[in-house]
């Protein structure tokens, strides 16, 4: 009997020692999601951005984008606006970093100059949309601290609910709540809480498709600002991989070359 009790005691101690904390589980979910999405190398996209004010009036923009996966750091992204005429030729370049502030530049064709985005201004709206500059950079794992909340269902799909806390001192958010699909390890919904802790925006992802037999990408994203009543829709019209992009396609001169 003593032997049985000792074995049970050791089993309990072992389980206690290896039990994940909510923070550890939250981090492990984020790491697994990042791991599953590695290896796409480069990407070219076309999309539409639809801006709506609180009255429902809308403006549509046509956009091209290219991205480069960077080993050991965040991705590089170049976005070019093709329509309407008042923003045609505007280009945005972003170097995402895991721990350091992102490097971001905006080319304004009317002024014919490149403007560097201040590291303290990443919470500002991107081109009048409900997406902030910090929303459109790649979401590197080390940018946040994490906390697992619970398992749940969203629209009939099994999900993890994670909280993540931005480590960037100038972030516009105190925390984000993320619903992560258990099968794809991709987000289905994100709630953004402002610096006062109030719900600011909700982003939802729709109509995922698989590319390269591995990488899931949404066909539509909806960002709703609860405080202003404004919203932005991103319609992803195409994704193309294996384009052969290099660092040269993402240097500062590429902003002026983009037409």
Blueprint of the fold:
Blueprint: H1 2-18, H2 22-36, E1 42-52, E2 58-68, E3 76-83, E4 91-95, E5 103-108, E6 113-116, E7 144-154, E8 157-166, E9 175-181, E10 187-193, E11 199-206, E12 209-211, E13 215-217, E14 220-225, E15 231-241, H3 253-257
Antiparallel strand pairs: 1-2, 1-15, 2-3, 3-4, 4-5, 5-6, 7-8, 8-9, 9-10, 10-11, 11-14, 12-13, 14-15
Would you write up a description of this structure?
The protein is mainly beta. It has a single domain (22-257), classed as Clam (outer membrane lipoprotein receptor (LolB), chain A), CATH 2.50.20.10. It is built from 3 helices and 15 strands. It has helices at residues 2-18, 22-36, 253-257, and strands at residues 42-52, 58-68, 76-83, 91-95, 103-108, 113-116, 144-154, 157-166, 175-181, 187-193, 199-206, 209-211, 215-217, 220-225, 231-241. The strands form 2 sheets. A 13-stranded antiparallel beta sheet has the order 6-5-4-3-2-1-15-14-11-10-9-8-7. A hairpin with a 7-residue loop joins β4 and β5. The longest helix is centred in the N-terminal third of the chain and has 17 residues, at 2-18. The radius of gyration is 21 Å and the shape is globular. The termini are far apart. The mean pLDDT is 92.
